Amino acid sequence: MAKEFEPRIVAFLCNWCSYAGADLAGVSRLQMPATFRVIRVMCSSRVDPMFVVNAFLGGADGVIIAGCLPGDCHYLKGNYYARRRFAVLNKTFESLGLEPERLRLSWVSASDGPRYAEVVKEFTEEIRKLGPSPARREVFI
Ligand code: FES
Description:
The structure is a single chain. The chain is of the alpha/beta class. The chain is built from five helices and four strands; from the N terminus they run E-H-E-H-E-H-E-H-H. The site of FE2/S2 (inorganic) cluster has 13 residues, from helix 3.
């Protein structure tokens, strides 16, 4: 029997909000798929676009960047910078014929474990529908 495709998603989570939200979801024992490979960064603005490209080249099927809610960044404007950078990255993916749907930017507060679990479920389902990343298929198989 063929094994069901299980997405590999690299999740860059800001230390102060999203990572804490993920932690809360974990300690609250909320059910969610084990598809996220979490990388903790101090702020969503720390995510260099090359981190995202490298994640795909390394076999990721999707990449998510999550940070504090707008206005709540612990470095004041970091998530605004992340949002701008993400918009450019999205356009770049689109113009290169890559699938921008494999990228996601999300805001999760430290006190919102259920929101984190919801993001994990939703994004996992979206990536599951898209199937394995073409980069993964071409580079690794
Ligand atoms: S510290 Fe969380 S987005 Fe900047």
